[in-house]
Known about the structure:
alpha/beta; Rossmann fold; 9 strands; 36% helix; 17% strand; globular
Amino acid sequence: MMRWRVSGRKARRAVLFTLALGSLTAAERTILAIGAHAGDAEITTGAVLAAHKQLGDRIVIAHLTPGEGGNPKLSVEAYGAQKRREAGEAAKSLGAEVIFGPYRDGEIPNTDEARRWVADLIRQVKPTHIFTHWKKSIHKDHSVTHAVVVDAVLLASLEGFKTDLPVHRGIRGVYYAENWEDPEDFKPYLYFDVSESLAAWKAAVTKYQFIRGGVSSYPYLEYYEALARVRGAEAGKRFAVAFDIESMSKKRVLSSLP
């Protein structure tokens, strides 16, 4: 059974509890990770996706854009093609399916049309759990993706919202990943032990050139590996990945002390 940790407001010592994720069988679990750009979902949540793939869960990664504008040495077209290839290789390494959205890097629209596209994605994939970006970011595409996904989760569940696909109401949780570009007001709330899946994560994310090095001077691999060590120390594990959730969801109802 999967175990998560919840951090207290003042104490570093985490309290164990069983997430709803653990109450489903592998055959019933589908995890959908939605990132603004190819690489976003894998670098932040890939270790968790790898752990759940090992349990037999279905894993789907959706990239709203390839992130084709981030290489100053290549044209948008050339780097977009490269990022698509790399995304396919990373997904294969994780045992995941991969889906691309119709949008361009830096131009994800905060519109009803984008919400309709993501709602249809949710109805198509039928996830039980969703990972996506935190709400506040220095990157417009990240914060827009958050807003679009949150609204699309609701739309996908409404009978009155008509598309070619049937309603999907089976989502048990939406979790927001920790990203170096999305730090404002992010509070680590759920800690997932990834000590056994960090190697699989590293093998997957290094399919991307920008993570291996040579595109940007930012030390992506070193940063996220060090972050996993820090979150692991907080959670009492060797390596961990942290998520935040909506404030309204930070509630536990008990009939006795755990």
